[in-house]
Amino acid sequence: xxxxxxxxxxxxxxxxxxxxxxxxxxxxxxxxxxxxxxxxxxxxxxxxxxxxxxxxxxxxxxxxxxxxxxxxxxxxxxxxxxxxxxxxxxxxxxxxxxxxxxxxxxxxxxxxxxxxxxxxxxxxxxxxxxxxxxxxxxxxxxxxxxxxxxxxxxxxxxxxxxxxxxxxxxxxxxxxxxxxxxxxxxxxxxxxxxxxxxxxxxxxxxxxxxxxxxxxxxxxxxxxxxxxxxxxxxxxxxxxxxxxxxxxxxxxxxxxxxxxxxxx
Length: 264
What we know:
Layout: E1 3-7, E2 19-22, H1 31-36, E3 44-50, E4 55-61, E5 67-72, H2 82-92, E6 96-101, H3 106-109, H4 118-133, E7 143-148, H5 150-160, E8 168-172, E9 190-195, H6 199-211, E10 216-221, H7 233-250
Helix pairs in contact: 2-7, 4-5
């Protein structure tokens, strides 16, 4: 069973109110969870280059897409991350296009300090958002940001920017505490997914929730550790992510240039 802690805007004395509950249907192995996602449609991928540094990436489009999810990888990872590619494959079944790209150049990736340079990573995501708006095939889609580990902090910083057109955020085993100064500025509904056995990161996510003013939800995956390597854990993450983005991107009110609501 997936444990859930939910909190929304309009909290009392600036504190989030959490109410744990369980929902066995959220398991990826259950019939209801699989019914929520469509059978993967024909996905079309193409290589892309992002920003002044021409960062390599892969854009995957699906038919009748509800939105585009841009991935922000964690420290020591990149666009070829098998964990994020598994999540992306599941998202395609939720009618979500995906963009996976390297946030760092090869030279920058050689210095581990850059993996924790949250302003730099957030700026690279801002470049990806600007690039998306110029693309004829995905430029009119609502956008969600999916961040893992330090990438989650970068996603929250990008979403907090005054001009950001981000409709939803999901953090997988993230470090939102690294974006502490920006958390109160995030307006997009945010889902925090943490392994129940990842106690240190869980404490950091609960602390971050108290600083946020947008709609937030904390999902605990029982028995899972930081990388969600346990059987079925990463699939659970992928379906929770797909449901969150499908819900919030489909209902997003377009605040971005030349945007339009996705077709039903």
